Amino acid sequence: MKNDQAGDEQNYLDICIASQQLTVYVDANPVQCYPVSTAKNGAGELMGSECTPTGWHQIRAKIGAGQPLNSVFVGRRATGEVYNTDLGKQHPQRDWILTRILWLGGLEPGKNRYGCVDSIWRYIYIHGCPDQLMNGNPGSHGCIRMKNADVLDLFNRIEVGVKVYIHE
Fold first, then answer.
1. Residue 163 class from Cβ within 10 Å (0-12 exposed, 13-18 middle, 19+ buried)?
2. What per-residue string of b and e applies to 5-28 under the rule 16 or more CB within 10 Å gives b?
3. CATH fold of the domain at 12-167
4. Sequence spans of domains, the chain
5. pLDDT (tens digit, 0 to 9) for every residue of the chain, 168 residues total?
6. N or C, which terminus of the chain has less Cβ within 10 Å?
7. Closest by alpha carbon to 79, among 70, 88, 59?
8. Interatomic CA distance for residues 100 and 152, integer angstroms
């Protein structure tokens, strides 16, 4: 799915916090749905809140192309580790960012862009997580978590610049 026009609202991602679902729209038609896990603290834009920001965003960067499924990322860089249950047990407090990262940038000044509400500065991503964390309930620290195979599929479907609408 390409989003070559700045004002193209026909091709976008819709993330519904209430249903914990991400839907891909192409030519204004839903073409794929994925389960997600948004923030355990609910919706909100304030830095440090650990909430999922709402409103219009766009994919600012795609990170992790060519990395294996379940690759571990820290600071947006692959560590060389591949997540498995043993690694998870060794580091039970880690907030796992796996497989791919789609870094979101807010498009609404004062709501999710600039200052203490900026989604880029909050490092809000769509990313993979240990699949067992995907239980239909909010559980992240603000990001949108996905199963690893799903985030890989999404990563391969979209381009940088695609718009993302996040709502309750």
1. buried
2. eeeeeebbbbbbbeebebbbbbee
3. L,D-transpeptidase catalytic domain-like (2.40.440)
4. 12-167
5. 444 434 567 999 999 999 999 999 999 999 999 999 999 999 999 999 999 999 999 999 999 999 999 999 999 999 999 999 999 999 999 999 999 999 999 999 999 999 999 999 999 999 999 999 999 999 999 999 999 999 999 999 999 999 999 999
6. C
7. 70
8. 6
User: How far apart, in whole angstroms, are the C-alpha atoms of residue 147 and residue 132?
Assistant: 8
Contacts of 52 (CB under 8 A, 6+ apart): 17, 38, 39, 42, 43, 44, 124, 138, 140, 142, 143, 144, 166
Distance CA 9, CA 28 (A): 8
E strand segments, 36-167: 55-63, 71-74, 77-82, 98-106, 125-128, 144-146, 163-167
Q: How far apart are CA 97 and CA 105, in angstroms?
A: 18
Which two tokens mark 49? Answer: 């809140």
State phi, psi for 32 to the nearest 5 degrees: -160, 140
> Where do we find the tokens 């960067």?
61
How far apart CA 157 and CA 3 sit, in angstroms, is 11
